[in-house]
Specification:
Blueprint (H helix, E strand, L loop, with lengths): L4 E7 L32 E5 L14 E3 L19 E5 L3 E5 L4 E5 L5 E5 L31 E7 L5 E5 L5 H8 L17 E6 L5 E6 L16 H6 L4 E7 L5 H18 L1 H4 L3 E6 L4 H17 L3 E3 L8 H16 L2
Parallel strand pairs: 1-3, 2-4, 9-11, 9-12, 12-13, 13-14
Antiparallel strand pairs: 1-8, 2-7, 5-6, 5-8, 10-11
Bound molecules: guanosine-5'-triphosphate (GTP) and magnesium ion.
């Protein structure tokens, strides 16, 4: 199951306390105040790690408490600052507090946010000397911190979603065109959770692509991998519908194509009308090659851009990448 939600508890480190101390000098048992300050508590910081794809890890670890600051020491020595606790999350993670207010929306690689700040260190007695009190015998305690609960939600922020029947070659394609390392298998439903990858073109444009688990008839009713992924497809600007050209004649392929397109439309009218590119895959295989031209003709009639590709050899993949980038640009109006 694709875990896209998690609930965890976080706490910044308590601040270290300032201390009361006096210099011990010859003939002056109680010298001037010299109690050092407490160190600051560590903070809990969430940071985007491009290698993470799910919130799965948060099922095992639910408590993220940063280190406390050290207490101050004599001779004006400041206590050690507590270390920050860095928590890695996938890109697209939204962090909310218990009331549902957004604390952070982590949409970019390397982006980070302090979610639970560490407590301030207390001041040592050396700070409290005044004209009326040369030997203060008090210091400030470190600031305490309370743990609190937060929720994490992973929003796939893909510009492009690769959709199609199981085994169509979606994962092979995302691996070929992007930074993703998706699992590929010669059986249906290899992909159980969306994979995200960044595509960079040599003209400096880039976009995020998602490889979605294979769709089947009645996916909108929860069949197969179900509706949970259509939720993710919904956020994509452009859909690339992959058709495995090696598995049948034009009629069969178009029937399958319409079936999947129909699923999207049944899920939401808006999704059914989303801009789409068709990609005929596996054209390194002779049986696939034969269907390229008839398929091209059908899609031309329908006004849907069609690209013949082989994710295995890379043939046609660059042209597809540029076509996707152009379509995104057109839609976004750049
Ligand atoms: N010959 C050839 N085989 C391919 C090509 N692309 C994918 N395949 C093979 O087709 C099978 C399915 O590939 P995947 O990329 O896992 O397909 P998928 O669409 O991600 O499948 P699901 O995750 O199950 O929906 C694997 O055996 C791939 O090696 C291609 O361009 N040429
Ligand atoms: Mg796959």
């Amino acid at each position: 199951m694709f875990v896209d939600e998690a609930h965890v508890s976080v706490k910044g480190g308590r601040g270290g306390s300032g201390v009361v101390a006096f210099r011990h000098e010859k003939g002056e048992p109680l010298g001037g105040p010299s109690g050092g300050d407490g160190g600051h508590g560590g903070s809990v910081r969430f940071i985007v790690d491009p290698g993470l794809k799910t919130l799965m890890d948060f099922r095992h670890q639910r408590h993220f408490f940063a280190q406390a600051g050290g207490n101050g020491q004599a001779k004006n020595c400041t206590g050690k600052n507590g270390e920050d606790l860095l928590v890695k999350v996938p890109v697209g993670t939204v962090i909310r507090n218990e009331d549902g207010n957004v604390l952070a929306d982590l949409t970019a690689i390397g982006q980070e946010a302090v979610i639970a700040a560490g407590g301030r260190g207390g001041k040592g007695n050396a700070h409290f000397t005044s004209s009326t009190n040369r030997s203060p015998k008090f210091s400030q305690p470190g600031e305490d911190t309370e743990p609190f609960d937060i929720s994490l939600e992973l929003k796939l922020l893909a510009d492009v979603a690769l959709i199609g029947l199981p085994n169509a070659g979606k994962s092979t394609l995302i691996n070929r065109m992007s930074t993703a390392k998706a699992k590929v298998g010669d059986y249906p439903f290899t992909t159980k959770a969306p994979n995200l990858g960044m595509v960079r073109l040599n003209d400096d444009r880039d976009f995020v692509v998602a490889d979605i688990p294979g769709l089947v008839e009645n996916a909108h009713l929860g069949k197969g991998m179900g509706v949970q992924f259509l939720r993710h497809v919904e956020r994509a600007t452009v859909l690339v519908h992959i058709v495995d050209l090696s598995v049948g004649d034009v009629d069969t392929l178009m029937r399958d194509y319409d079936l999947i397109a129909g699923e999207l439309g049944s899920y939401s009218t808006e999704l059914g009308e989303r801009p789409v590119l068709a990609a005929g895959s596996k054209i390194d295989l002779p049986e696939a090659r034969e269907t390229i031209e008839p398929m091209r003709a059908v899609f031309a009639e329908r006004g849907i851009p069609f690209y013949a590709i082989s994710a295995a050899t890379g043939e046609g993949v660059d042209a597809l990448k540029f076509a996707i980038a152009d379509m995104i640009d057109n839609i976004k109006g750049d």
